[in-house]
Amino acid sequence: MRRRIVAGNWKMNGSRDLSEELVGYVRSEAGSLDNGVEVVIIPPAIYIGNVLDQAQGVVSVGVQNVGQWQSGAYTGEVSPEMAKDAGCRYVLVGHSERRQIFGETDELVAEKVSLVVSSGLVAIVCVGETLEERESGQAESVVAHQVRSGLAFVPKGQWHNVVVAYEPVWAIGTGKTATAGDAQDMHSAIRGVLKDMGAPAEEISLLYGGSVKADNAAALFSEPDIDGGLIGGASLVAKEFMSICRSFPAAT
Ligand code: PGA
User: Fold this and answer.
1) 230 beta partners
2) Which CATH number fits domain 7-245: 3.20.20.70, 1.25.40.10, 3.40.50.920, 2.10.10.90?
3) From the alpha carbon of 172, which atom of ligand 1 is closest?
């Protein structure tokens, strides 16, 4: 079902203290949100247990990455089944940092997505163009290709376990955000691609990510095809993160 989601991706940041203080604060505030937003925290895997202790079912928890196998001799990897067993509900797949720094391909993203959704977890599949691609007019075709290939193996009955996050690479951690109008145009294009693939496009939540802050969230979240945000830097500051969560109007 299409729902409002605000997810904080801590990347390789955080500590036991942050897991206790920030998540404790977020939990105490999230319970009184009247706008139907599901709040998700995605810490480094080693802090999942600490975050879950504080989240207490009020805040959802996710992992930033999984391997493409369920178990075995893959030193350093965590599987979707393990993430589920530990209490996670979400898995980020294909974040641009994974693609650019760790060489993840569309094929690998597709394999992981299929394993994640088949495990009953929700895959937040990240797509987005580079500055060069945007400036040369290829943004929409690049993103459409990432959506088609990354979601190529989603089984027919598993689309409810898919969320797509549009994160223009040039906006991540740079302080530059897509305008609400440009983000809306891309989200609408993504919904069109999903429809074309035979997916229940109107039911799939589409998040925007890339320098979302308390002062630009409301404009982004007022667009009809933007169902929430994937927040990096601002998710490490408890009050800022919660004010992003409050940027949706009250649920009707
Ligand atoms: P940012 O990161 O909010 O710091 O730009 C977003 C992300 O990488 O998910």
Assistant:
1) 7, 209
2) 3.20.20.70
3) 5
